[in-house]
Amino acid sequence: MWSWETSNNGSGNTSDATDVETYKKSGVDIDVGEDLLRRIKGPVRSTFNKNVLADIGLFGALYRAKFDGVQKPVLVSSVDGVGTKLKIAFALNRHDTIGQDLVNHCVNDILVCGARPLFFMDYFATGKLSADVAERVIKGFVKGCRENDCALIGGETAEMPGMYLSGEYDIAGTIVGVVDARKIIDGRKVRKGDVLIGIPSNGLHTNGYSLARKVLLEKYSLHTNVDKKGKTLGDDLLAVHRSYFKAVYPLLSRFEIKAMSHVTGGGIEGNTLRVVPKSLKPKIDWHAWERPALFRLLQKTGNVPEEDMRRTFNLGVGLILIVPASKADHIMSALQKKREKPFVMGEIAKR
Asked: Could you write out the DSSP letters of every residue in 61-121?
């Protein structure tokens, strides 16, 4: 479960009879870590379910391997981070949503295999621990887990002096889910003529921030108003990476969905190629949807080539379903009932 890392970076401090060194002097404050643990126990426990068998504090997390309704369970796992989106959170001192970003990203990664999430584990590392900041980040993990019916069963908090700039940290997360072996979605059944249905993203999600920061922050402030609703550029850049679990997972038992693509680094085409047979390719209609204003601003401000835009960003499409053409309308209707705004964005063609 959650532990407190007590190794430092070997900063070179020495001691003699007149100069007593302590762990706290070297930069690691165990008391702050224990205070953080006290703060997060309640929120983290709120994600537990009947399969969680151990409380916070043990060396390992215990989860009962019993999956109702799954005859041949296959575990599906994924690990990820949120990249340089963290730099925006640091600049704005807003840390309450970055944990949600990470959970939702990982949930989507296993969803496209047909899996539902079981539990999530996090890693939070910093040079000097701020219990206030870490608590906000971890409460973001908690919110993401609760919204995705996922238990937050463990994590690691590491304070490592000298490893990070002042006020900065890094996070990573691992998710484990389950799918019935008979219901794994792996793209093997994709055929020429199948239809691509796109579901909108909520901005950049967690990819392309190195380019976005370089282009936009040379000209604009994060506090610049970018629309008539009073949203700032910072608001747009910190928009939460969406989870598609609640909208899409119920459809998997009702419709034939041959493959799904979570649009992350590599863009729409690159990620969709990962889930179709080698002899096929997605034929994208790039005019089938209107790109959100943030992407248009990015391309115009930086004079970014279209090829780079397509390979780097999701361009307003967060998840793609590949379905039989004869079922596309029914699946679109089902998604609309979930308050989604799906659109046909292409088809599968021969290479």
From this structure: --B----TT-SSEEEEEEEEE-TTHHHHHHHHT--SSHHHHHHHHHHHHHHTTT-EEEEEE
Identity of the residue numbered 184: I
**pTM of the entire structure?**
0.91
Cα separation, 152 vs 150, in Å, equals 7
Query: What confidence category does residue 54 fall into, taking pLDDT thresholds of 50, 70 and 90?
Result: confident
Give the DSSP H/E element, type plus range, for residue 200. strand 195-200
pLDDT tens-digit series, residues 263-287: 999 999 999 999 999 999 999 999 9
Spatial distance between the Cα atoms of 247 and 254, rounded to a whole number of angstroms: 13
Q: Phi first, then psi: give them for residue 25, nearest 5 degrees.
A: -65, -30
Sheet bearing 317-323, strands edge to edge:
259-262, 317-323, 195-200, 343-350, 280-284
* Residue 120 tokens, joined: 């999530």
For 195-350, which CATH class? alpha beta
- Which one of 4.10.240.10, 3.30.1330.10, 3.40.109.10, 3.40.50.300 gives the CATH number of domain 3-9+21-183? 3.30.1330.10
